[in-house]
Amino acid sequence: MTIHAILTDIEGAAGPLAFLKDTLVPYAREQLGGFIAAHAEDDDIEEALDEAGRLMGGFSLKVEEAEALLQRWMKQGRNPTPLKIIQGRIWQQGYEAGAFSAEIYPDVAPSLKAWKDAGIRLFTYSSSSELAQKLWLGAAPEDLAGLFEDFFDTRVGQKVEEESYKAIASQLALPPAEILVLSANEDELDAAKAAGLATTRIARDGGGGNHPVASDFTAVTIG
Ligand SMILES: CSCCC(=O)C(=O)COP(=O)(O)O
Ligand SMILES: [Mg+2]
Description:
11% strand; 6 strands; 6-stranded parallel beta sheet; 46% helix; Rossmann fold; single chain; 8 helices; Transcription Termination Factor Rho, Rna-binding Domain, Chain A, Domain 1; alpha/beta; binds magnesium ion
């Protein structure tokens, strides 16, 4: 089957897993209280806090309750959309303040460009918000966000759910088998495969599994 689109994971596949765990999440946890207090009335943050309350059964959350809930979700390693929206805004402040900078592996840019030149449509699918994805992909030395046609996030569903990949294939108006999913995570690839998409695990630290494996983006076999 010819591949007409690539749907790539970011953290773990295009950039280091440790950047999320050791830098981004600790920064979000540290900044969360002050950020919510300062931005609770911004349209996107207000909407995210309302959605967090709905997910908890329809409660209207006070600022301190919202902070406790979001801290708990981060501790549990969960990825509900309102948390990811708020994290994205906090990380934007961190990037702008120079608190940290992101890293994209050097094999990623040339591979994406070669695939795009070959007529393959490029998409991301990440648990992080569209804003957070664009910020990470904007890492020096060049901004790669412009190579992508669209950025899927948890608004389409969680990455470990088969239905999410069916919804993406339907939005791309492509047969699932013509979309290649690149991810570092076996559970995400299992869900994609169950939905009929082609899969390759980006295994930067080696290892096998149930999917074709590539050590980096240059080792991905298309078609
Ligand atoms: C791309 S910004 C931070 C990543 C993140 O918040 C996350 O939950 C994991 O993202 P992935 O790209 O592995 O879905
Ligand atoms: Mg990932």
